[in-house]
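User:
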Amino acid sequence: MTSDPDFYSAITLSNAYMQARNYRRAEEVLRSALIHDPHNGRLLTELARAQHLAGDNDAAEQSARDALALTPEDAYPMRIYASIVTELGRRREGLTWAQKAVDAAPLDHSTHYEYARLLAVAGAAAAALPVAKEALRLAPADANTHDLMGVILGMLGRMTQSTAEHEEALRLEPGHARALANIAVNEANSGSLLGALAGFSEAARLDPHIGDEVRKNITAMVRRWLGWITIAAWAVLWLALKVEDNTDATDPSTRIVTGLGCVVLLLMFGWLARSLPRNLWGPLLRQREFRSLKIYLGVGVVVLGVLGAFTLGVPVNFWILAGTLLITVVVSWVAPRFDKD
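Assistant: Predicted structure:
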């Protein structure tokens, strides 16, 4: 490997650009350096990393292959290549290269971290746990490794330990947005949706780049809230009609009960509107990837409209009411999941 100062300048500058998430500029710097030193494996590895972070995994794979051809025993390009091919859907190949990287550099914390991460991505949490423990042994003060350990423990159902690891990541790095988001996932999965919403919102404020993950989890929360509220509304309405024995649903007491359901739904939407940061609502409603949230919100508005019309005395058949609520329950409870990254 060359000791040319231009080489070190290129590495330093490209890493600064990658830290700032300006991956295209990092790629330009590295390509410029490669013009003068086209057979430098480290430059090619950094180029592969920049391309991978930019989402151009096909180009990244070729750059990583070129780096491995020049430095076949180097764990660094092995690790980068493992991550790239995993993103391309070749998980088994990725795990093979990650294991090779660990074998090539058994005292390198990064190789153990990446192998544990890829095992977790593959769903092999039990196999990932001892690898993550070794990564922690090598770098006990690394916040990202504690956060990864929290993800793995959560996959194994050890939620108290999982949250403790995420909190340790926050202690080591107070602005660790992903650890905060992962704590919110644990809270959401344990039923503490109010705390989870606060955590997701704060994570998005700290790091706008994880906004997609946050919005996806907020979508799951809205779905679950909608399910709970409509189940309760449907049950109350059904009981009221059974008590009155009135399938036309015209009795005043039934309208009062239904009106209470309207109030609850209005409070939910109002609370959501006030609780979520304004900078989340635009992407939530604009991005095609989150059209499911628009469906759930739309269904909630339809239910609110039907119940509101009924409450105000507009004739609405019982079966329309019951059918509307039942459809909402089905839509809102189709596999509500909260995901970590």
